[in-house]
């Protein structure tokens, strides 16, 4: 009997090979995506997927956990070292699960969440009405000003009226630094817990390239696959022992059953990469490349929300254009540049259409693109948008960018 995918299920194998080709030859600029390390994929593709380990290290409901206990312990210790905190739960299957577990640990149904509005750059799990977090709890939101910046005085005014149990800060589409100190003062003044969801910027935080929400935030959540470049998954951190105990219970047995031990091993391996001195170079490049992208786009006459970026993403506003975010997303896709349409401050179109695109630097930085290449890419983006109906130009740019992409190979094989 053959164990290999190619011989056992050619259909799936074949699509994975096509996806390998897509990842190698297109320019991946979705701000929340990245290319993880082959060592992380090796751990994720390992026999650890076979093991049930409900519970926590050395307190399991199953036998045979002596080695997975060590692996989870490594992941926890590395996470604590990276973020400089006392407690870590590495079991959430995703960022949404992590946020849901924090709420279920610390809130009663109909308690109040105050988070950033989804259409202003927040996340579904920050209390959006279409999410369970906006249905099970009373949710309220703050946003950004028309210039794209958060006005903390306004956040404070809203917090004073709402009196939330949890104030959530963090974002999916905000290109500036958050003032965690000010947010913690606002939270304290209204008796709220401050939860910072740093999914987008965690990889910059651990490199010292973005402020660490500790010691200001009571709880920090993140995904492990965005700027952190680890496996797809979630993580919860705190310095508060009482919260930590409640959070552990909320993750298991509250929300999840068996932890994904192969992913937890991937998290441990990813955290090891984040602890290396070379990680700082990567994080610096991510920021510099995003800044370069914003500058070139502005020089080419495009409106960048907040007139620049302090992190890994650029939010391009197309409010002054006749075409939408959806049109831009499609045209750039045709030219081999993968981005996503995104709402912008002062949005006039539906969430399915929008007037903006979100463009990120993490994945191209992971394959070694530097400022020089980002200047080329930013100009190609402007070339496509300047002449958005010209599909022939898009085909030509796609082949030029493919030439550029293959000079920076990322993976030689798809299956590890
Ligand atoms: N889907 C993620 C993003 O693109 O930002 C958030 O979960």
Automatic annotation (TrEMBL):
It comes from Helicobacter apodemus. InterPro entries: PyrdxlP-dep_Trfase, PyrdxlP-dep_Trfase_major, PyrdxlP-dep_Trfase_small, Ser_HO-MeTrfase, Ser_HO-MeTrfase-like, Ser_HO-MeTrfase_PLP_BS, SHMT-like_dom. Catalyzes the reversible interconversion of serine and glycine with tetrahydrofolate (THF) serving as the one-carbon carrier. This reaction serves as the major source of one-carbon groups required for the biosynthesis of purines, thymidylate, methionine, and other important biomolecules. Also exhibits THF-independent aldolase activity toward beta-hydroxyamino acids, producing glycine and aldehydes, via a retro-aldol mechanism. It comes from the Bacteria. The gene is glyA. The record marks 225 as: Plays an important role in substrate specificity. This is Serine hydroxymethyltransferase. Pfam families: SHMT (PF00464). Pathway: Amino-acid biosynthesis; glycine biosynthesis; glycine from L-serine: step 1/1; One-carbon metabolism; tetrahydrofolate interconversion. The modification N6-(pyridoxal phosphate)lysine is found at residue 226. GO terms for molecular function: glycine hydroxymethyltransferase activity; methyltransferase activity; pyridoxal phosphate binding. The lineage of its organism: Bacteria, Pseudomonadati, Campylobacterota, Epsilonproteobacteria, Campylobacterales.
């Amino acid at each position: 009997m053959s164990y290999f995918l190619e011989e056992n299920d050619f259909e799936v194998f074949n699509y994975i090979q096509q996806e390998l080709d897509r990842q190698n030859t297109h320019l991946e600029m979705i701000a929340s995506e990245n290319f993880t390390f082959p060592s992380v994929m090796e751990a994720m593709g390992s026999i650890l997927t076979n093991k049930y380990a409900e519970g926590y290290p050395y307190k399991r409901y199953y036998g045979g956990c002596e080695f997975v206990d060590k692996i989870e312990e490594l992941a926890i210790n590395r996470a604590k070292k990276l973020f400089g905190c006392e407690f870590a739960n590495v079991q959430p299957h995703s960022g949404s699960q992590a946020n849901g577990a924090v709420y279920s640990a610390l809130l009663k149904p109909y308690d109040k969440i105050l988070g950033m509005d989804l259409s202003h750059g927040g996340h579904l799990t920050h209390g959006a009405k279409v999410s369970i977090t906006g249905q099970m709890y009373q949710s309220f939101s703050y946003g950004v000003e028309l210039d794209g910046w958060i006005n903390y005085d306004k956040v404070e005014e809203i917090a004073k009226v709402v009196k939330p149990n949890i104030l959530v800060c963090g974002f999916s589409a905000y290109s500036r630094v958050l003032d965690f100190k000010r947010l913690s003062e606002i939270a304290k003044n209204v008796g709220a817990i401050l939860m910072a969801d740093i999914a987008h910027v965690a990889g910059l935080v651990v490199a010292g390239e973005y402020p660490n929400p500790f010691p200001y935030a009571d709880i920090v959540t993140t995904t492990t696959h965005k700027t952190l470049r680890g496996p797809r998954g979630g993580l919860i951190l705190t310095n508060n022992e009482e919260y930590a105990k409640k959070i552990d219970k909320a993750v298991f047995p509250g929300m999840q059953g068996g932890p994904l031990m192969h992913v937890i091993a991937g998290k441990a391996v990813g955290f090891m990469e984040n602890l290396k001195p070379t990680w700082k170079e990567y994080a610096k490049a991510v920021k510099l490349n995003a800044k370069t992208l914003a500058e070139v786009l502005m020089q080419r006459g495009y409106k960048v929300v907040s007139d620049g970026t302090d992190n890994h993403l650029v939010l391009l506003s197309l409010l002054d254009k006749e075409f939408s975010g959806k049109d831009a997303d499609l045209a750039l896709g045709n030219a081999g540049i993968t981005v996503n349409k995104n709402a912008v401050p002062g949005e006039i179109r539906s969430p399915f259409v929008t007037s903006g695109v979100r463009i990120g630097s993490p994945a191209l930085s992971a394959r070694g693109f530097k400022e020089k290449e980002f200047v080329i890419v930013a100009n190609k983006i402007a070339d496509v948008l300047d002449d958005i109906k010209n599909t022939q130009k898009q085909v030509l740019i796609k082949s030029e960018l493919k030439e550029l992409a293959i000079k920076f190979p990322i993976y030689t094989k798809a299956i590890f």
